[in-house]
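Figure 3 (text version): structure tokens given as input.
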């Protein structure tokens, strides 16, 4: 039973508007820390909190009113010059915004939130009384160290380029004295974490309050749509209705025997008109699902700031391309991978200020998060100017961990070596820490990106930094595919993976290490026959090869023939999805076409169970 009586609808409106307002306040607080004398910024923040307090008061949310009132008074003193911005004061303010966000969580379940932490209230009251700011904080880094602590000095030497390693002696000495380390360290970017932050660093907000920069993601059931887009959908629906009436009239004439040239021409024109209108309507409906990625990105400045404070680092997160639009469902599913990538950049990619100064860098590091539309894809990039990754060190580490054999490792080029960090287990997990925070590795990040039909790439220069690029389709609702045929059955493969189609001749196939390969423009590519991937017996020799590029490999998919390009709507297969199948769609003739999950299929190559399940599925 709701505690808000008949005000549930008002509560939902308040939560939607206030959550966006609070995120905006968080971002402006990040700017205020850089521009403490910007009175216009202070006024905007003051009005934001005042608005949240007013809505909470209307709904009788006493705990939120009390907290917001104190914070609002604090902003008023800042506006009047009675207080000055400092790191400690900002920590307490951010802890207050985190507590308000926690209260939103209780309100979303139609419950009255509990009072704010008494320590937070006491800190706010102390600052209002003119006392020095002290954040109600826990220790900046809480670590559980396993019994078998690895030699982190050796690990640092193995991973960081030698030029940078010599300048990191102070940090290494600190670790030798007290081996406190961070869990889930991506081996290629791992660096020792000092047992104590530099003395200049202030305590950070506790994760449960102000540190709540990345709360558990929840699916939103509402979406805001520009009325212009809805008007377009409405107008197109009316046009389709008129065309339907025209087709109904023509159908009646034909059934009555009127099959003259004029009637058939009118029928052809009406069908052509309907085809155009349906395409326009489809695009218009898809546009109603598109949302700016800025709604997602606005969470990350706070996250980067809090984590940098905990680690005693100086980091500026610069965001651009917030207006770029992406499917709402994809935005929600993209949050966890991006949180992990931003954390990785700050935690593992960026050096301590002293180490940066030693190699001639500015003490404040720069992390950039950008988004832009490139063709029919969205490109999101996370770039840092940190220590970078050493491809040779990655290769050696993968061999040491037994993830790949020496022969395979030696055949990898530099780009393929960087992709090794996506292998399951390619991380140090002897220690556990709350700083890195989400319990997922880079292999899970890549898996989540691939579920969105996207791809992730890495470019890194030792000593200069790393750039991680995520390419995603504009929407999951419609997927561009290439329809191919194997064993007299049509299949669809994602067009995003297709580079080109080439004819296959027996003379062009060469055996390398017992495996068929084809040389394409001086690049040796393995050949994978689609029928063998499916576990089926080939009915003919493949005539064409589809040169495909996945996240970590290039290969040629040998097929019998191809039908062509198409844009399809994927229908999920409930309870009967076999390995290697992403879903199904209908072709123009009404037959079922299975959409293949190539990564999944490659991992189960030749599995007869796959083939048997596909036969059962196709025969349904």
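Below: residues designed for each position.
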């Amino acid at each position: 039973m709701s505690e808000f009586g008949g005000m549930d609808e008002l509560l939902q409106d308040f939560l939607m508007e206030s959550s966006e307002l609070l995120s905006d306040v968080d971002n402006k607080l990040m700017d205020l820390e850089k521009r403490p004398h910007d009175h216009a910024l202070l006024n905007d923040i003051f009005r934001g909190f005042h608005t949240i307090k007013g809505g909470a008061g209307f709904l009788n949310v006493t705990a939120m009113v009390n907290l917001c009132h104190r914070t609002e008074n604090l902003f008023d003193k800042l506006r009047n010059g009675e207080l000055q911005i400092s790191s400690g004061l900002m920590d307490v303010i951010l802890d207050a915004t985190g507590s308000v966000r926690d209260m939103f969580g209780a309100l979303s379940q139609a419950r009255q939130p509990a009072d704010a932490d008494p320590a937070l209230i006491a800190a706010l009251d102390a600052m209002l009384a003119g006392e020095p700011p002290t954040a109600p904080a826990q220790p900046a880094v809480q670590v559980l160290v396993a019994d078998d602590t690895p030699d982190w000095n050796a690990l640092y030497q193995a991973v960081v380029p030698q030029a940078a390693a010599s300048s990191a002696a102070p940090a290494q000495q600190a670790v030798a004295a007290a081996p406190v380390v961070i869990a889930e360290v991506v081996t290629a970017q791992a660096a020792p974490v000092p047992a104590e932050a530099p003395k200049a660093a202030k305590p950070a907000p506790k994760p449960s309050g102000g540190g709540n920069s990345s709360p558990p993601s929840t699916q939103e059931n509402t979406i805001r749509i520009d009325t212009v887009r809805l008007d377009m959908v409405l107008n197109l629906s009316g046009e389709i209705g008129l065309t339907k009436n025209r087709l109904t009239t023509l159908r009646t004439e034909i059934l009555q025997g009127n099959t003259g040239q004029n009637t058939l021409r009118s029928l052809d024109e009406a069908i052509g008109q309907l085809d155009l209108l349906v395409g326009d309507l489809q695009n218009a409906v898809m546009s109603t699902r598109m949302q700016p990625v800025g709604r997602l990105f606005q969470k990350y400045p706070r996250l980067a700031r809090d984590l940098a404070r905990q680690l005693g680092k100086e980091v500026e997160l610069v965001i651009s391309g917030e207006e770029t639009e992406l499917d709402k469902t994809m935005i929600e599913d993209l949050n966890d991978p991006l949180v992990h990538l931003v954390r990785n950049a700050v935690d593992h990619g960026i050096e301590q200020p002293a180490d940066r100064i030693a190699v001639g860098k500015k003490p404040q590091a720069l992390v950039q998060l950008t988004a832009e539309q490139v063709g029919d894809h969205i490109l999101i990039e996370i770039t840092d100017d940190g220590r970078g990754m050493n491809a040779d060190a990655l290769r050696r580490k993968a061999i040491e961990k037994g993830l790949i054999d020496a022969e395979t490792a030696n055949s990898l080029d530099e780009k393929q070596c960087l992709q090794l960090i996506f292998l399951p287990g390619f991380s140090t997990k002897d220690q556990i820490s709350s700083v890195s925070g989400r319990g997922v590795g880079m292999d899970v990040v890549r898996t989540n990106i691939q579920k969105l039909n996207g791809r992730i790439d890495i470019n890194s220069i030792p000593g200069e930094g790393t750039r991680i690029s995520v390419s995603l389709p504009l929407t999951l609702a419609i997927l561009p595919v290439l329809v191919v045929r194997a064993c007299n059955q049509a299949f669809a493969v994602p067009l995003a993976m297709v580079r080109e189609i080439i004819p296959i001749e027996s003379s062009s196939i060469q055996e390398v290490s017992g495996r068929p390969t084809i040389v394409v423009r001086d690049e040796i590519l393995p050949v994978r026959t689609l029928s063998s991937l499916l576990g089926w017996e080939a009915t003919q020799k493949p005539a064409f090869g589809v040169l495909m590029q996945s996240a970590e490999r290039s290969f040629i998919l040998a097929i019998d023939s191809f039908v062509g390009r198409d844009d399809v709507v994927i229908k999920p297969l409930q309870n009967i999805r076999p390995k290697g199948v992403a879903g199904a769609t209908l072709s123009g003739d009404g037959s079922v076409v299975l959409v293949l999950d190539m990564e999944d299929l490659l991992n189960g190559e030749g599995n007869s169970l796959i083939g048997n399940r596909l036969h059962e599925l196709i025969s349904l």
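Residues 135-218, 428-434, 436-440 have pLDDT under 50 and may be disordered.
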